Amino acid sequence: MYAIGVNPWVWASPVDDEALAELIPRIASFGFDAVELPIEQPGDWDPARTRDLLAAHGLVAVGVCAVTPPGRDLVDAAPAVVESTVAYLMGCVASAAAVGAPCVGGPVYAAVGRTWRMSPAERAACYADFRRALTPVAERAGECGVSIGVEALNRYETSVVNTIEQTVDLIDGLPANVGIMIDTYHMNIEESDPYAALALAGPHIKHVQVSGTDRGAPGADHFDWPRFFTVLRGTGYQGAVCIESFTADNATIATAASIWRPLAASQDRLAIDGLHHLRKVVA
Questions:
Q1: What is the pLDDT of residue 258?
Q2: Which residues pair with 183 in a beta bridge?
Q3: pTM of the model
């Protein structure tokens, strides 16, 4: 059975020490096994304090989510921007290692919301730039026992990688600890067959995020969850599966994630209903 986790973004943004002190006990009381921890800004949460808090409530950190607002880019950006983004990602790796999380995942190539047209030659050059920029991060992560999960986003949030096939191409030639972070929300939009795409990702999967097709609770949607988990088992993936959704109470994150209406009766219900559905399907 997969460990089932949740991202505190369901309730709060930024996810800082104060938010975690409130949310970690609640997340544990709901019956989750794990959490993934976003880092919007360096220093939002203290790794040692967070590690101890998780341990006190029987939870583990299974991922650190890299966040790429405007100005965090590894491609099609000024050298100073690339340098500062590399430094940010190095910090994510250090925090993951300190809190015991095995993966740093996210759209680590460019800021969410940046889109531009690329010819095949321009795309190939973009991907080559990404590999060069990410290599030192990947090497540092490898030394720390941390993997990097590259996340494809839907067409409205990026033009760099939208599909698993593109992501496999993007990471080709990078160290083996660089792979793919699955996100079912984006796959539902971009993949003509998300289950075949999941199988293609199989050897490269480092972390898995799930949500309903509307960003609500898994199970309250049209996605074929039994089929998804059948394929996931077939890939050999043995890591955690984490619910990722977002609070509408923070204007910045609600706008970035296009959360314009309530996705459940409450954020607690979104998490609890999603957890119960995933437990049932996985079992």
A1: 84
A2: 209
A3: 0.96
